[in-house]
Amino acid sequence: MSSSYSVDASSPPHEGKGNGFRLKPFTINLSDGVPHMIDLAKRTNLAINGDYLAPNAGIPLETLVSLRKELIDNFDWETEQQKLNKFHHFTTEIENRTIHFIHEKSHRPGAIPLILNHGWPGSFLEFIPLIEKLKDDFHIIIPSLPGFAFSSAPPPNWTIHDTARVFNTLMTKVLGYPKYAAYGTDWGCNVAYSLYANFNTSVRLAHFSFLPFFPLNSTQLAAENIKLSPLEEFEAKRYDNWATTGNGYFVEQLTKPNTIGFALYDNPVGQLSWIGEKLIDCKSDITVPRKRPNMCKGLIHELEPIRLF
């Protein structure tokens, strides 16, 4: 089935489009703040040794020392900034809040608009390596969640559904895509799920890195007479490990965000410790019962044949 609407893929949007949403190009320029960040990192004193710390109690001291040294000695922000600015960045005003996003349009007629929703401790950066791999088949839209990167902070009591509503406005009214697909990782899964659940006349297909639901515990599984596959058992064990020893950050950020926010403000080494520990944990060496499919190929394989557009 061919696409039911046409999309001008000749160029990204320009200022003046966007139906009054103050859509305009955006260039990343944080160079002025880098010397201050490096100076703070140099003046940060770390513990002399971590021998008194229990194993698996968080980021190892030697790892943090190494990350701090890498930041001070080898971090080249100008090069990184130039790489990021090769893509088309924009900001727009939706519900009186600034939303930052990348918009890379495919030159293929009938390409599917695809919004990629990041989570925490990620950002739009986590999808940068996918742009060129997906752009042959999709128009790529990568927004920054409210409060992340260059998007305005959300007000109190803001919910995932509020973010989904704003992102649907971005896709349908600002960029003019009446139908599109959604993908999400981490909190972005919740956003993508809300998009699909609440705006399914526009969001015709959603793909998740995980489902935003808590799994059944062993008692519930036994009561339902459900037997897990080896992969499901592996994933259930990983969830149990997270729930017992890995969710301290989640509880702190959920219940006392001011406390950790003030502690990390203007504190680059603190950020390295707080966020680095989670990224290292996510990349830890684990043995998966079966090989997972490549995400890029999976997206193309699953979305391309389903021409709901």
From TrEMBL:
Annotated segments matching region Disordered: 1-21
Stretches assigned to the Epoxide hydrolase N-terminal domain: 24-127
Low complexity: bias regions: 1-11
UniProt xrefs under Gene3D superfamilies: alpha/beta hydrolase
InterPro entries: AB_hydrolase_fold (IPR029058), Epoxide_hydro_N (IPR010497), Epoxide_hydrolase (IPR016292)
Domain of life: Eukaryota
GO terms classed as biological process: epoxide metabolic process
Pfam family, one: EHN
Keywords of this entry: Aromatic hydrocarbons catabolism, Hydrolase
GO molecular function ontology, one term from the record: epoxide hydrolase activity
Similarity section: Belongs to the peptidase S33 family.
Name recorded for this polypeptide: Epoxide hydrolase N-terminal domain-containing protein
Organism: Gibberella nygamai (Bean root rot disease fungus)
